[in-house]
Design a protein that fits this description.
By secondary structure, this protein is α+β, with helices and mostly antiparallel strands. It has twelve helices and 15 strands. The protein is elongated and about 130 Å long. It starts with 5 loop residues before the first helix and ends in a 17-residue tail after the last helix.
Length: 492
């Protein structure tokens, strides 16, 4: 059996961070536009290096942002508790109160972007002075251990680094197991002898309070995001754009030439003693100016479209070399971006910006692959959020909600459609299929949890007023005397 002491767990988890550091740093560089240089000749000068720097066209944030912007938890519907209690409403559930207290409406996006970029991210749920709260943790600072990393949702231990070692200052980390939290200090992630684990304190949960959000997990337990598989294609695009910039700089314009005529030379003035002078009044002679190797230095020729070229020697010939074509390189860039769109399941018009003359059916077909990809992420991340909600309920002492495995995360519908189209479709669902109208309120585009709860309250108030009016009508005897036009006067 493996050693599960806190010191052994800390060493193993920090070793995982040390092992994955190079891979995660490379992904982080590509997300932030710090890509590998394209190939260039060994004797490349500063101009080549400048073109290589300008050739970087960073598509990685778009690959992350496109699905991340369609992931937005808008509510949570509790299920039936284990104790047989009736289903609670979203607004009164401890899960949604914890969500609002943790400010997850805004902070959830960072969790998704981290998971999509690095392959996984984490959320820590803990007790604070303001109550039970959750916060996102970076994959570069956090590692977790699972007995079955492909199928388990609950780690048996996890660590998150709060500060890295710097100089003589030790690094600090927080270690969690199934019951306790430990303070960890270390000089370096790979220095197992420097790792020290302090005394533990109960964190209040019956399992490790860190939840993994993995974009994709295979049966070997490996997590892969949307960036790492696309690095090779990103490098290809950068190389093609670099070649395009080089061609554009050196061969995309005509080169004028002249034969049979020596270029003018830079001259320097000499005084009567044969010394170089800059005073024209003292100059009595001149000679060509020489470079460090003793060769004459040609004078700069100021030539443009307004100047006329001429020569005294009839053997002198003028001409021009044609510009080189760059259309094939432009087509190659377009093809590489289309490959990136196909492999990453990103609609081509999101990358190329070509949306003119596309029908609604064509746009829907282009968005199909992305919609399936987003649906997969919603399924994976939804399960992770449900565990976070159960942990929060347990830490708050709500045993019924802590055992609620029937709750469901409600994702906002981010599809682009007009309100008129949605209203027509929802009306048909209610009239033709008999679906309760109140059950369709959640599907109104753009409706928030607060608006939905306001509608429920308004409907209950209307029902109460209607029931009261009916009760008063039944309780009032019918005298048979008609009422006069005046509301307060009864006819005699």
């Amino acid at each position: 059996m493996a050693d599960t002491s806190p010191a052994s767990l800390a060493k193993e988890l920090l070793a995982i961070l040390d092992r994955d550091e190079g891979r995660l740093e490379r992904i982080d560089r590509y997300i932030n536009g710090k890509h590998d240089d394209p190939y260039m000749p060994p004797q490349a000068d500063d101009e080549y290096k400048l073109l290589a720097k300008r050739a970087v066209s960073n598509w990685m944030p778009l690959l992350i942002g496109t699905p991340a912007q369609a992931l937005y938890v808008d509510g949570f519907r509790p299920g039936t508790a284990a104790a047989g209690l009736p289903q609670a409403s979203s607004s009164t559930s401890p899960q949604w109160e914890h969500w609002q207290r943790s400010r997850m409406d805004a902070r959830q996006a960072a969790v998704y972007r981290g998971a999509l970029g690095f392959g996984h991210s984490f959320v820590l749920t803990e007790k604070t002075k303001r109550g039970v709260m959750s916060k996102g943790l970076s994959a570069k600072r956090t590692a977790a251990l699972f007995e079955d990393p492909a199928n388990d949702e609950t780690p048996y231990a996890a660590i998150t680094v709060t500060s890295w070692p710097k100089g003589e200052t030790l690094g600090k980390a927080r270690l969690f197991d199934g019951k306790r939290e430990y303070a960890v200090t270390f000089k370096a992630k790979g220095d197992a002898e420097s790792i020290r684990v302090g005394g533990g304190k109960l964190h209040g949960a019956t399992e490790c309070p860190i939840t993994r959000f993995a974009a994709s997990v295979d049966l070997e337990g490996r997590t892969v995001g949307v960036v790492e598989p696309m690095i090779a294609l990103q490098n290809r695009i950068n190389q093609t754009i670099f070649d395009l910039l080089v061609s554009q700089t050196y061969t995309s314009h005509e080169v004028r030439y002249v034969t049979g005529m020596a270029p003018p030379l830079q001259m320097e003035m000499l005084d009567e003693n044969g010394q170089v002078t800059t005073d024209p009044a003292l100059a009595v002679d001149s000679r060509p100016k020489l470079d460090g190797a003793g060769n004459p230095i040609p004078a700069n020729i100021n030539h443009n479209a307004r100047r006329f070229l001429f020569a005294e020697d009839p053997d002198v010939k003028f001409g021009s070399l044609p510009a080189g074509p760059i259309g094939s390189l432009i087509d190659s860039v377009d093809m590489s971006i289309r490959h990136l769109a196909a492999i990453s399941q990103t609609p081509p018009h999101h990358l190329l910006g070509q949306i003119a003359n596309l029908s609604a059916e064509a746009l829907l077909a282009a968005e199909t692959a992305l919609s399936r990809k987003i649906a997969e992420f919603q399924s994976i991340f939804g399960e992770a959020w449900e565990r976070v909600f159960r942990l929060a309920a347990e830490l708050e002492g709500d045993t019924g909600a802590a055992d609620d495995f029937a709750g469901e995360v409600q994702w906002r519908d981010m599809e682009s459609r007009s309100l008129a189209q949605a209203a027509d479709a929802l009306g048909k669902l209610a009239d033709q299929l008999g679906i309760p109208k109140r059950g369709l309120w959640k599907r109104v585009p753009g409706v928030t949890q607060t608006e939905y709860e306001d509608w429920e309250q308004m409907a209950e108030d209307d029902d109460s007023v209607g029931q009261l009016a009916s009760a008063l009508t039944r309780a009032t005897p019918d005298t048979g005397i008609p009422a006069s036009p005046d509301s307060e006067v009864v006819a005699a």
